[in-house]
Structure formats: structure tokens, C-alpha cells
Write a structure and sequence with these properties.
This protein has 281 residues and is an all-alpha fold. It is 78% helix and 0% strand. Helix 1 runs parallel beside helix 12 (235-248), helix 6 packs across helix 8 (144-161) and helix 11 runs antiparallel to helix 13 (254-276).
């Protein structure tokens, strides 16, 4: 999971760097499309040549497509926020998903949630408010984008847990990559195509890290309970700060750092409490 978050942070930072070089936010779809072509080819080559899989049979699996659609929705809101906000802010708000798990369990599954877990959710919300900094509101209401992405991320992981096996990790990420490429490609058709050859090497490198991140993400969900690796997800905030600074020159504000610490600690408490109650292994 640490390796997964590292690769995602590198990939996302390179995507944002490419979009900034083009100086057109709409080009995000173009970058994701070209990156998707590379990633899909890598995975296709492995499945067809190395594993000798029947590609058409893989593409017919409905459950893989449902999971892939949740990934597409996550990416839609995530990348919109990523282009318009600092990388570290987006990652910090994305890590609100443990709170959504608790809230959804209470509302939809009628699960009993104790005082301490509600307290952690409230403290986590305070961390979100500190990150957003309502007195400043520098990014307006754009902060809602990574929070919506966090909701779809939670649903995606739950969907993955129900379909992943020891042998189908590459099949799942192949369908996801195809859908991501398809949706971004359709978007690129209706918008101006801004990619130049100068961005291609960066996008190629980005696609390699994305493919690795996809694989590690699915493998982690298969080999361990979601809750066991959930704490390692918070490392993406640190990686986001590092690569946001090194590649994009983004310096995190004090309120962002304080809010990130509060969100991380409250999220870890939610996980710890679920273990104590025996709800997770």
C-alpha cells in the first residue's frame, strides 16, 4: 500500500505538471487519454502474451465494469480538484473516506456507532474545516471535489473486495484502464486536443507509475483486509507534499499541515476502534 500511494503521487504530480505546461485545464482529459493508451497497452501485452488470457472474455465480465465505473467517477472528481488545487490539499481531503464508511454504515446498514467513533468523525470534520480555511476560501467550493472523490473511492474499494481473486488482478485493472481511456477519449473528441510531443515522455513515465499503482492497489485489497492497510493510505498526503513541492513548487500552508495531522489521527482512531469492536480483523 505504501508503494501504491507513492506511485499514485508520482503519477498525479506528473499529470498536473503536464497540464500546467500546456496551460489549459481542459487538456487534463487529453493527458489522461494518452496516459491511458500507454497503460492499457502495457496491461494488454502482459495478459495476452505472458498470461495467454482471452481478452474478449475479460471484457465481458460485468462486475469488472461496475468497479471500473466507480474508478472513473473517482478520477473525474479527483483530477478536476487536482488541477485546480494544490496536490497535498486534494490528498488530505481524499483521506476522509474512513469517515464516510462510518457514516454510511450508520445510515444505510443501521450499524450502531458509539460515542468515541462519532467523536473521531467530528474531529476529522474539524480537520477538514481547518484545511479548507473558511475565512480565506482561496479555492472557493472546489474543496467539495476531492470529498466526492473520497465517497466513490470507498465504494470502489468495497466493490473490489467482492470480485478480486489471486489470479484476476491484472484483468480488473485492464478493464479499469480501458474504461478510463474510453471516457477520457470521448471527452477529448469534443474538446480541443492540446497535447504536444514535449509532453509525451512525461505522460509515458506517468503511465508506468499508474500501472504499478493500479496493480499494487488491487493486490493489497486481495491479500489483506481493507482496514489493515487503510492506515498506510495516509502516506499519500506526505508523498503529495513532497512531489507537489519538488515538481510543482507547491508549498503547503500551516493550516493544511495541521488539518492533515488531525484528519490522519482521527481516521486512524476510527480504524483502531473498529478493530477493538471486532468489526474488522
Amino acid at each position: 500500500m505504501f508503494a501504491c500511494q507513492l506511485c499514485f503521487a508520482i503519477n498525479d504530480s506528473i499529470v498536473k505538471l503536464s497540464v500546467e505546461e500546456i496551460d489549459n485545464n481542459i487538456s487534463t482529459l487529453n493527458v489522461i487519454f494518452i496516459r491511458g493508451l500507454f497503460s492499457t497497452f502495457f496491461i494488454f501485452f502482459y495478459l495476452k502474451v505472458i498470461q495467454k488470457k482471452k481478452i474478449f472474455e475479460i471484457l465481458k465480465k460485468k462486475s469488472f465494469h461496475i468497479r471500473g465505473l466507480f474508478e472513473v467517477m473517482t478520477a473525474l472528481f479527483f483530477f478536476t480538484g487536482l488541477i485546480l488545487m494544490p496536490v497535498s490539499n486534494v490528498y488530505t481531503l481524499l483521506m476522509t473516506n474512513p469517515f464516510f464508511v462510518t457514516i454510511f454504515a450508520f445510515i444505510f446498514l443501521k450499524e450502531k456507532v458509539g460515542f468515541r467513533r462519532w467523536s473521531a468523525v467530528i474531529i476529522g470534520f474539524i480537520g477538514v474545516v481547518i484545511v479548507i480555511n473558511p475565512q480565506n476560501m482561496q479555492f472557493g467550493y472546489l474543496f467539495i471535489l476531492p470529498i466526492i472523490a473520497a465517497i466513490f473511492l470507498t465504494i470502489r474499494d468495497i466493490a473490489t473486495k467482492g470480485i478480486v481473486t489471486e489470479n484476476n488482478s491484472f484483468e480488473i485493472i485492464f478493464v479499469t484502464s480501458v474504461l478510463m481511456t474510453l471516457f477520457s477519449g470521448i471527452g477529448s473528441i469534443f474538446l480541443d486536443f492540446k497535447i504536444t510531443f514535449l509532453q509525451i515522455p512525461k505522460i509515458f513515465i506517468s503511465s508506468i507509475f499508474l500501472s504499478i499503482a493500479y496493480l499494487f492497489s488491487v493486490m493489497t485489497i486481495f491479500y489483506a483486509p481493507l482496514s489493515l492497510t487503510a492506515s498506510a493510505r495516509y502516506s499519500v498526503i506526505i508523498f503529495g507534499m513532497i512531489f507537489g513541492y519538488l515538481l510543482l513548487g507547491e508549498v503547503p500552508s500551516y493550516n493544511m499541515i495541521i488539518g492533515a495531522i488531525i484528519i490522519s489521527l482521527s481516521g486512524l482512531f476510527v480504524i483502531k476502534r473498529q478493530k477493538e469492536l471486532g468489526k474488522i480483523k
